[in-house]
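Revision sheet: structure tokens.
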Amino acid sequence: MITQNQYAHFFYNVDGLGSRGIYKILERGVNLEDLFGMEEKQLFALIKECTGKNRIAEEIIKVRKTWNFEEQKKNLDKEEIKFVSVYSDEFPEKLKNIPDPPFGLYVRGALPNPKIPCVSIVGARMCSDYGRFMARKFGRGLALAGVQVISGMARGVDGISQKAAIEADGKSFGILGCGVDICYPDENRDVYEKICLKGGLISEYHPKTEPRPNLFPMRNRIISGLADIVLVVEARQKSGTQITVDQALEQGKEVLAVPGRVTDRLSDGCNFLISQGAGVALGVRDVLDRLWKTDSYERKDNGSVTEKGRKEAGEDVIESERSSFGKDSQLSLEYEIEDVIDIIPISASTITEKLHAKGIDIPIPKLMSCLMEMTYKGRVIQDGVYYRKKLENICK
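Predicted:
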């Protein structure tokens, strides 16, 4: 027996129809099974009325002559992809009432659990060391608290936060601007290969659809639509991140932003959002507290966000990393770091390599914590790269 979801898959593959066209037809009270078997004269009249394009009716007639429902299902199963339309019980309720809702989604892996809170983490592709550190911090912390992390799997903040969530054994979901069978960008292949085991890949675009610039703004409404909160880690004021924020606000979602220095262009977007009324996220606890206040997750007994997880994901995670050195060890490490930073600008990754050459292995989060502490103390200068602060600079 052919299901409504299979009929939905057929119409979703009719070139030129799309989600909007299908929804317009459904508004006429037409059943998809009846539409599939409709006589040509009646079909032309209905499609003309709904879309104003006769060629779409011609396309439906052409495609249905060769369409094999069982073969289409087998092709998707072979690629471990499933098509989920609004007729499916799996289709996310959160996406049904957003502006311009998708009619169907291709999924590799799973969809977010509707009983567990979701936070979308978005930000700059070409992020700074600070942005990378904060993306890891929030991705890991939220995952430890049992929160599902959603993003676009792009380079920079998106991919970093999702990788941190997966490494913390959490659930993460990548919303793609291409087919779910395509990894883009290739540098995030490790995330792409692991995410289906601990979450899923989701796209409204057909498999084998190559990434194109015009596809990414559309997918952003799904990133915000699936979230309870949208968290902006680092972004320029005019960027793709702002599109996601605008869509989140249109959908009635809460937006939080991580503040940055006013002299950093990459923090312009976050600081502007805060000035316009967005919530401030100084740490993971700020996000979790907002989640607790939403009506949807006022049910602490469902285990979706445990109190233990809240504690593990809070600032005590970072503090425990810092205190693991001990005060003397911490100070000793700071001098080791300062010693490898010369007058030549140096990145955090290069600092790690130089320390490794001296027999010191340090995780990036701990390194970033030390560098931030040294910046506060005025011993180094951070401007995308790091400089050792010379005596003559201090005197000035």
